[in-house]
Amino acid sequence: MPTLETGGSTMTFDRQGPQNTEAALKLAMEAAREEGIHKIVVASYSGETALKLAELEHEGILLICVARARGKTGRPDGNLSGAMRQELEARGVTICTAAHALSGAERGLSSRLGGFGPVEVAAHALRILGQGMKVCVEISMMAADAGLVELHEPIVAIGGTGYGSDTAVVIRPAPTAEFLDSKVDRIICMPRKN
């Protein structure tokens, strides 16, 4: 178990990374129950983190696995295998496959043509608080765009740095077209930046 420090109502992990996954998932689930939130979105490209979340008691809480679309793998569900999709759906997890809200087409243009765009600047600004924070905001918008969460209503979002999870927030998501209207109400847990 990673070292935790309390900082008000936020738990701070001593470092970034997947070693925080179990604790982050439990803290996120506890926060959802405490605050009466009925939807949790989790970034999980392979499905492993979403499966760990689904193994926790989640009666009355809809779990949404946000997986990246196609990407470099060429598969429709990115790294999410057909077997993993079936396992998650059997456990009541809703799958959201979408392009990254904070890169997508804009990164395609900037990598081909050089420079950068405003959405990439916003993504880098969010990374000031950590990669997991950027992921939490991004997957919330992706789920909002897909119509899986109510706009501007609190949900819990879980993201990470690389693999696994190390960040969870209570957020009121906006769709990507209204990105700046997303509101992070509470940071449940996050790592110190290494």
From TrEMBL:
Species whose genome carries this gene: Hydrogenoanaerobacterium saccharovorans
Gene3D superfamilies on file: Pyruvate kinase, C-terminal domain
Protein name, entry field: Pyruvate kinase C-terminal domain-containing protein
Domain called Pyruvate kinase C-terminal: residue spans: 22-170
InterPro entries according to UniProt: DUF1867, Pyrv_Knase_C, Pyrv_Knase_C_sf
